[in-house]
Design a protein that fits this description.
Largest sheet: none
Order of helices and strands: HHHH
Number of strands: 0
Length: 89
């Protein structure tokens, strides 16, 4: 699974320095990856992907898109721990 996270970061890094349309394409691919993880019911991976997507939207000043991605991440994390036992002390 390490390769799956390594490749998008390298791709995103190169896209951020080659123009806005490439940035948009990279962010779109992250969204697709998150949705594919959701379809596979890999909730933790989907949540992590959406958090990464949100962080990139924040860096670009896309507040609405960032908020949407954070909500998607939260919903995925909720499904990975439906009883809410994680994080409670």
């Amino acid at each position: 699974m390490e390769l799956q996270h390594e490749m998008p970061f390298k791709f995103l890094f190169s896209c951020f320095f080659s123009g806005a349309s490439k940035q948009d394409e990279a962010l779109e691919l992250y969204g697709r990856a998150g949705n594919l993880f959701k379809m596979a019911k890999k909730w933790g991976s989907a949540g992590n992907t959406f958090v990464t997507l949100a962080q990139h939207h924040v860096k670009l000043g896309n507040k609405h898109d960032a908020a949407t991605a954070y909500v998607d991440a939260a919903n995925c994390y909720k499904k990975s721990d439906p009883n809410g036992k994680r994080g409670k002390h």
